[in-house]
């Protein structure tokens, strides 16, 4: 796509954050002709709203109202969703930014994924679902939530698990452990076998560094990984014939020689064979296996197992020549001559080290390695009755236990250091002790004593421990004079071993310390090109797994060498990061490590049968379940096996993107406060203390408990629930001196909804400080909860939550009543109303974008320019900017979209795409030719319904000329196939039987359009939700039902007619009614977005209520703002200001309105495409508290005027009374602004008169959001707040000329008498008196309080139900000036989405009128909610205004004559379907 | 402003809040009466006023009533309230100030608490710790309540909780230094 720009700005916007805010901004911008990139860090958009159960104050299902938005965003041609994307940097300036994003690999190809969920079913990794607040589980392959958009699955991966990182062979430990957990032993073995050809061996003798590093060890003890490996290998070898060995590719024709058939040599040979090399192993001993065969005794490692695993390698084509000793039978120089192109030296370290003690040459003294080799090879070895073994390593243990088995009566291990330094494996020592081996610790040999050439004793010295040596172990220091003698007849020395360099003479290889061969540590190449060395011969004696790892590394480098590529170097291998302790691990992990079974020591010591018997299968499965899945995805690849569309790609990498955009919108949200920090509230300590968001998930039908209200500890239904408010909010100690704005309301909602969910009467109590139901209709919601639903509200902040002593899991809360009474109550469940907290992500985002945050970490923006950040061209909305609820977030989202739209209006349409379709084929006269496509939906449908049967049946139906099944009808190849079938078979009707039409019908309809068919020649059958899902247990009947449904659809399809939507031209001008702050802001926004505006104001001058506002809470200058607004409006050539004008009439439809206004005696008609009502409201008057009777009783506005003009200088005591005439029966709503107004005026007054007393008499202080800090500031300044109740209002009287106010202090229970010099009443806001008339003219509804009623309280807060009409400012509801202006920007943006289009497509499915049948009764007009019905005086029939018709069908039902029909749902069509159903 | 208790109008001292605020260093005026302190206080059942009511009275300048309240003497200074006050007011510091003001001002009220307090401190000053027996005997003599709580005393004695002779601690001198420092400062 070419990035053309117009007017030098980019026509594209980056929106960061896919919550409700980001979605709304994206939709508005895309609709207004701008290309949108919507970047979301998670795998799906939807944000917090998608996690909620219901929403206040309408109790709508959150998911039901948000999912259409999800779909709108997801399918929008000009919104590109970037999931897993994080903003990295923003360069350039407004209009022309270059943004960098990092997109995390999803490991699932979104284009291929059909969302069938098979990967998640197969995935063995379970972890707590963050979406469900940890109450439910999800898999590593997952979809964030059922309705997630995009609906593709994703796989979560972390850094390397510590087990895998620690394994020298790099075995995917987590992967095979997970498969053991599932009982998939052969698959598990395959994972091990990928990196290690000796799983059975390692399952017994590995020193398991994996376990040493296992994060589970930080909880209790590591997972018993080695035993699990053994379990998998043993199970796999049960059926050796069918063992799935790796495939060996075509031979490369190159041969490699490996010298030494120990673990290193075998491992290298195996890896080379897998690459296609021919490998020959030369082994000096008569058996292969190296130390496995001749070092480790058979009771630890059965020889048959070693033979078996070596046998498998031979089966893969590896040749082993035993009895071929280097130096004796061949030299390194011989090998190239024999055709070997590379050589690996892996001869191990088989030579025992001598102690150089006196008497070491006596008969009866032997090195441990020689001793073990001889025993292992079946040679006769005699041991005496009393044996001493010198050394503390595994060889010493092996020698000691072997000696016992050969008949020794007493075996003593002599070790020079103490238990803590001993190097033998713990279980080996344990087994040795069990078998009766004695340990003589801190003892060093001094001499071996003998008589007649035979050993008779071992002279020893006691040691003490000195300073640590280079290896970190404390050095033994002999104690002088501590000599003593142990009587023995055999001494076995096991103090170490070294490679035998005898065969290397003349090889030219350089030797290092202890006869090791020098090789580069990274590539293992020796000084001689083509000759590599690995294992003990390089490192000196090490472990089996070290050798296997070295073999694998050598093989990789031999391959590189033979490919002519550069070998691995020390810095070429980038260190992979190790995953930290997994954050997803919850507390309370109670599962002890499984203990393997051992043979009875008394019996096993008599023979060489295996002594450790491993874990039982059942124990193994359980043990595997202890794995914490540190890297989340275990890469077991089970998902790959089950994914039919082959969408999974484990090799995906993170991507870096660079985009060019004109503006950036930030709406990443905030964190939900984690109350674990406040340990006294019992969160994470007691299972029945949950957060409010967790409670939302408990209530949600798609939540972890399927919507059953039960408590987490025992699944019981709670009878009594408490909510604790202000958790993490309104807390100076946490530096959270803000109110989270939403908690009061959601707590009420949760209490009410919980009562509805509960089968028994539910007791609900909310503990709060101030009830902050300040939004539109919130106060009524609060009143209803209290008065109708019986929710109890107690004004007391809770000190702590404790578990009740009865151990039943209930919780005790102690609280204080106003009068100081202390109460204690028990609750079954406690919900913590957690607020918002700016996230770490916010700080990062601020850093990469260069914007400023406030003292709490919320994004800074102006009081009158909300959403405008400190960097031009970057805007912020949602909770990122300040705590707020959903409606305000939606308003803000549209408002900031408006700023971007203003900035980029010159490039509107420059980067957006329009889809073009081929012309439609005429079909009306042709006979129906129906194509039917039946979907398996993976196994969603196919596992229940016999799809081939349905297809065959469909083929028999009349007019069906083509039918077939699809695995996934929605996949791109199926869509292509549908188009091809339409063309090839000349189809003119299409039926698809699949899942829900809500998500998929449009996809198939566009396939029709692309194939030249009208999209309404399409019928959709839902055989998933309507059949396979609901009739899972009766597949036969489900199949029959599917046939019935298809038959009905086919019958209806035969009668389908093309439907073509009509279009209307759009007049790009708009009308804004009301010239206050809101109206002017809306007009400016529209004008700056490039649209002509008529701004009509009834009074002679602009300004509205803003004229009366002199101060603001946050310190901005409202009058200066007003002057600037008037200036900008007056000077904008696109705005026509008409003052002193009244609205006379209004007519038309979206895009084309005509409004008559009256100017004096003249009328004028304005033509415009959109209308914004910003008609304001006013301060209420009152007759209470001597207002109007006493000169010193004023309203807040009058006080403000006095303060502005210096008229309150003499006042020594100022008293304010809040909620005057508000929140009572007469005016049941909260006016929202009064608390802020009172705080503002009180602070201003204090500033002017620091010594004067100020008393604010209030019911609840509603300093929502960031206004809380001004409440704190007011208290700090000494302003006294006294709470009164509605039942005991303050009493205002006069004493002579003086005023006297008496109010009962709720804390002391005593009356406080005040003598104010001035009494200010917060009388609140009442709607404009003219609203009733305006609502009739514009045909828009009012709410019960007389304010304009929006289309939807939550998600369409500035729209009217009818398109083309928008509202803002006080006319909608009481709000502060800045909020009004913000809403105005939002309304302007909403209007711009309509005005930006040249034509509007009307709803295609509309009503039609058959004039012959219509008698003009106009019942249809009464039924129509959209003013789409009119009487046509000429024909005397009803007509449909298609531009207004929404296709709801109400008029069709109302029409008594059947004259009205609904397109696509005509009577004949519906009857045909019904008749077919009854066949 | 005036506070009216029933028929009576209570005397308010407008300077009291400032005095307590300054001496305690606590932002008393920030209290928004959430009552968290009251619901957490382990002694609250024995108080006439909850901690937040005390704060409220300080707020309103009800000096006499506050300083006469036995509650200020019963507060054990455990800081349970202060550690969780959302406004960061350490109420036990306020209580300390109130006690010292009450002691200095010789406010008429139930003297027993103050007597106990003083004896307790004297006891600590001389031994470095409390000698329960002596403290009890002195307190009883001073308040003339010789024969109350005898049964409880006997029980404690039997359990060895009332040793006959006082124990001293090693750092007695340090304790005395502390007392001297505090006295010098106040």
Could you please describe the fold and organization of this structure?
The complex is a heterodimer of chains A (1479) and B (186). Chain A is of the alpha/beta class. Chain A is built from 41 helices and 70 strands. In chain A, the strands form 22 sheets. Chain A has a 5-stranded parallel sheet with strand order 5-2-1-31-42, covered by helices on one side. A 5-stranded parallel sheet of chain A has the order 14-13-12-15-27. In chain A, α22 runs parallel beside α23, α27 packs parallel to α31 and α35 packs parallel to α36. The N terminus of chain A is likely disordered. Chain B has 186 residues and is mainly alpha-helical. Chain B contains 11 helices and 2 strands; from the N terminus they run ββααααααααααα. In chain B, β1 and β2 form a beta hairpin. In chain B, α1 packs across α7 and α8 packs antiparallel against α9. The two termini of chain B are 31 Å apart. The relative contact order of chain B is 0.11. The model of chain B has no long low-confidence stretch (mean pLDDT 85). Chains A and B meet through β38, α36, β59 and β62 of A and β1, α2 and α3 of B. β62 of chain A pairs antiparallel with β1 of chain B.
How many beta strands in the DSSP annotation of chain B?
2
What is the average per-residue confidence, as pLDDT of chain B, rounded to a whole number?
85
Portion in strands of chain A: 15-25%
Strand content of chain B: under 5%
Let me know the average pLDDT of chain A: 94
Helix proportion of chain A: 25-40%
Shape of chain B: globular
Gyration radius of chain B, in Å: 18 Å
- Neighbour order of strands in the largest sheet of chain B: 1-2
What low-confidence regions of chain B span 5 or more consecutive residues with pLDDT below 50? none
**Largest interface, by Cβ-Cβ below 8 angstroms: which chains and how many residues each?**
A-B, 42 and 35 residues
- pLDDT below 50 for ≥5 consecutive residues: which ranges of chain A? 1-6
